[in-house]
């Protein structure tokens, strides 16, 4: 299968996906922490 030159390799795409999920998880954790701290 021939891929275009400007398309990122598979590993890079997977890493970007993982980083995006990590960012979302971190944001959710921050929000949860703020809520918990605010309730105390």
UniProtKB/TrEMBL annotation:
It holds the Pfam family MmpB. Keywords: Membrane, Transmembrane, Transmembrane helix. The chain crosses the membrane at residues 20-39. This is Uncharacterized protein. It comes from Streptomyces machairae.
